[in-house]
Known about the structure:
Blueprint: E1 2-5, E2 8-11, H1 15-26, E3 31-34, E4 46-49, E5 52-55, E6 60-61, H2 66-75, E7 79-81, E8 87-91, E9 97-100, H3 109-126, H4 140-144, H5 148-155, H6 159-174, H7 183-192, H8 196-200, H9 202-205, E10 208-210, H10 216-225, E11 229-230, E12 237-240, E13 249-252, E14 256-260, E15 262-265, H11 269-272, E16 276-278, H12 283-290, E17 292-294, E18 297-304, H13 308-311, E19 314-319, E20 327-330, E21 339-346, H14 347-353, H15 358-373, E22 382-387, E23 400-402, H16 406-410, E24 421-423, H17 436-452
Parallel strand pairs: 1-14, 2-3, 2-15, 3-11, 8-19, 12-16, 15-24
Antiparallel strand pairs: 4-5, 6-10, 7-10, 8-9, 12-13, 13-14, 17-23, 18-21, 18-22, 19-20, 20-21
Helix pairs in contact: 1-10, 1-17, 2-17, 3-6, 3-7, 5-6, 5-7
Family: Belongs to the flavin monoamine oxidase family.
Pfam family, one: Amino_oxidase
Keywords: Oxidoreductase
Amino acid sequence: MERIDCDVVIVGAGASGLTAATRLKDAGRSVVVLEARDRAGGRLWTDDIDGAMLEIGGQWVSPDQDALIETLDELGLETYPRYREGENIYIGPDGELKKFEGEIFPVPRETEEQIVSLIDELDALVAEIDPDRPWAHPRAKELDEISFAHWLETQTDDLEARENIGMFIAGAMLTKPAHAFSALQALLMAASAGSFSNLVDADFILDRRVVGGLQQVPLLLAERLGEAVRLGQPVRTVRWAPDAPESGVIAVTDSLEVHAKHVVLALPPILISRISYEPPLPRRQQQLHQHLSMGFVIKVHAVYETPFWRDAGLSGTAFSPYELVHEAYDNTNHEDPRGTLVGFVSDEEADGVFSLTPEQRKRRILESLSHYFGEQALAPVVYYESDWGSEEWTRGAYAASFDMGGLARYGADLRTPVGPIHFSCSDMAGKGYQHVDGAIRVGRDVADEILASR
């Protein structure tokens, strides 16, 4: 077995791990990055599918994502705005299609008043939440012991208002049913984006895309690190000495032993327990990781000969908590004459369609898109489903979140180093939580943490 010696070994070649590795290397530390996949990028993946460039993983850039924007500038990557001209579509509980502009859906006046009231109440609560320390809020334990669905029920009897507000957190972000995560977890999700209003505003949260795809960020970082990045190297074992953390760690793959002073586990929290630790991690970490789970969402890509919805005066933006595809957007690539729609099927709805055959599932999903955009949506020239739940080295999307009560109980220890073992990924971010911006922020912080420890 080959032996490599370095200052820091990073497990995971996603945006967070590669950011940490780059910062450490720039500070004069030697690094090795071990990646289980045969590619760099983690949950960023831009690929050619049947002649169409598709963003299989993360893709959008919002104006508050300073760390990501700085990284794009450093790497010389350009962005372009998401197409949003024209009217949006909303389908209500009666199945009626309505067109609208702005942020508030065309619902009955009483429901609109309740939606606005809920947004105001959530914004007020979010303003009290420090995204880096949500457990420090005076009501953290209380808010973490009730589900977001139950919290909404305490605020209004209007079911359509609750379902629409719930959709923005449950379906669009955490990709879990609103009864499966706490009100505190929902507030963290909103606080990480600056406000609940920002999550409701698709023109803000889904503002721009990167020309050529967002995976270029990790690919270019990996390219700069050169031979320090080793692909196809899943780490099986981490050996460390709790009584003598200064002695460092050994990360073991099937063909390598990397001896280092520190290890950074830059991978989703649910994968941390897939590594064997000699000796085992402390009890606190063992319990903590059992209270985190990934969401579940299918990202659907449908490419058409032309963006036909634009001719009808539509933006391509569509919402409905009553549709299989609960949200859709114009996802046409930069200067591409073809048109692309991207849609999302989350949590329990995704469970349901995965009980079907692939052809049945495709038909059901395209039928849902056709309810928004008409019969032309039934016949894409390219169709693809991003199913991160079946990805061996991810196992869900978009990120991990705590079960009920877990955030207040364990959140403060999520990123706490264990001797020479450090943790880094977007799932552990405050600002930028579950986004590439958060991955970069945590990667920088962990690198600085290691540099300050010497």
